[in-house]
Amino acid sequence: MNELSLDEKVRAWVRPEVLGMSAYHVQDSDGLIKLDAMENPYSIPDGLIDDWLACLRECSLNRYPDPSASTLRTAVRRCNFIPDSAEILFGNGSDELIQIILMTVASPQAVILAPSPSFVMYRQIANSLGLRFVAVDLEPDGFGLDLQAMLSAIERHRPAVVFLAYPNNPTGNLFDRTEIEAVLEAAPGLVVLDEAYAPFANASFMAQLPHHDNLLVMRTVSKLGLAGLRLGFLAGPPAWIEQFDKIRLPYNINILTQVSAEFAIDHYSIFEDQTRMICTERERIFTELSALPTLRVFPTRANFILFKLENRESNDVFAALKNAGVLIKNMGSAGGSLANCLRVTVGTVEENNAFVDELRKVLSSQGQ
Ligand SMILES: *Cc1c(COP(=O)(O)O)cnc(C)c1O
What we know:
Layout: H1 6-13, H2 16-19, E1 33-34, H3 46-57, H4 70-80, E2 87-91, H5 94-105, E3 111-116, H6 120-128, E4 132-137, H7 147-157, E5 161-165, H8 177-186, E6 190-194, H9 198-201, E7 215-220, H10 222-226, E8 232-236, H11 238-247, H12 255-266, H13 268-291, E9 295-297, E10 304-309, H14 314-323, E11 326-327, E12 329-330, E13 341-345, H15 349-364
Parallel strand pairs: 1-11, 3-4, 3-5, 5-6, 6-7
Antiparallel strand pairs: 2-8, 7-8, 9-10, 10-13, 12-13
Helix pairs in contact: 4-12, 5-6, 5-11, 7-8, 13-15
The structure holds pyridoxal-5'-phosphate.
């Protein structure tokens, strides 16, 4: 006998923090020019597809993958200039690494701290684990770190982990290096530098790893051009990595990903060329947007551009662009310093032109 309805059973057994969450929402992009998710618009060149498939043909899908991904490990170390003293841990995307880090430190009193606005998964994953999340507002003008506020929050909350995205998402800027150093000095626990946009930034804390025993540097191949593979890695002191490795599920990096990523690293210049094209386009689109009246465009070191509408609602402009076939990201619903902000990913020349043309049309029409 069970008197409870299905809905009541779900409410009775699912943790309250999970009931209170909403799942990460991915926009439907069917038939649209997709400039919403910081993907690289280019794929592996046609001429190389057969070579890639030949590598995949060698994979034994009946066997578990190499649990330590050792061939890939050597290649990743080499192409990311990871200091010899650091160890690395792979994740199924850097999202999984964030989850592994937080599961490792998840005690009832643990606090996770990050600036706001920043990457939403820090908060989402902290919430999913029932951890307390403290957000410290960035400076409203220009989105730099508010160092005094960061330092006093660190002193008050003694966070287990501080996340700093470098460059930051969704704002695109790099925080000041000496301010990050000050956070590293003050933080009692870990500081994770999330370098998802490193390929576009020409700035990194990787070389600082030997100088801080609480620094972790996290990267991903997603923004580089391999978002479909789901591969991220974390570099840091072996004593920390050893603990995270106990939480990692044994075969988290599948064999198709391992072999494809090795192939990509063997042909790394392709991605460097694509990255260079994206950065050139970023500068061009930045200039074009900056020339439009009633827009404030924020400087960026990533593969996306954040801009603010001065006399229009971001909801309206987002919807009008989507109607015209261009999908970007509406950040305005977050409110606060992101009110009426939109974020556009840098695409191909044609995609970027279509976006700028449509935006120009939308802004010159009267709007409601
Ligand atoms: C996109 C993004 C990630 C997620 O990367 P995956 O490896 O695709 O999970 C992590 N951090 C930041 C700041 C991002 O923008």
